[in-house]
Amino acid sequence: MLNQHSIEEISEIYSLLDNIKEEYKNGIKPIILKNSPNLFKNPHTVPKLKKIQINRGLGLAAQNTNLLKKSIDEFEKITGQKPVITRSKKAIAGFKIRENMELGLTVTLRGEKMYAFLTKLIFFTFAQIRDFRGFSLRSFDKAGNFTFGLKEQLIFPEINYDDVDQNQGFTITLVLDNCLPKYRSTTMDRILNGLILFRFLRFPLNDSGYYDKHSSFADINRVWDRKRHLKRKRWSQE
Where is the Large ribosomal subunit protein uL5 N-terminal domain (predicted)? Predict the structure, then answer.
């Protein structure tokens, strides 16, 4: 028999599945404002998802019309939106690339399609990855956006195994809308905002404990500055 905590957790998940956008507006955002009034004095500074970008690089294989059409069809099934074909901006003779040559596909999701895709990722797709242990916190960039890669398209429920001739992955970027005040506009503040939002959305991050041994963000900054200094020193000696 399920205990009370399990029932509460299941009900929260069903609430997120029903409408993750409404859950953010009526549940997540008020809780963040209530629990962290010092960090978020203005409701507009609360972190929120702005858009999701899905990219696939095909390289010279994009010149194969059948392969390109198949990739476009997979994008439409997975995202519910027709992708844009990315083209080269200039010619590179060494890589046999001509100017305006088709090289890949990209899709930008906003609004309802963005939240529907996020829900599918968190509660269905990640569960299909073998030996999945979550994503690294170091996938955040300086702007506070989170980028990760998926190795194959078969983990999406819309893709039929018999229709796949070749495994092809994606690069997915979760772009956050960070409207931070000037006194909280550092890289660590942007990453902190992303961590807070992902925590409420149950996004799987695996190495949160890596930073438990540090007493403050200033301590973490010193560690990363030391690592950057060692890298510069090694490069200068090569």
Answer: 42-98
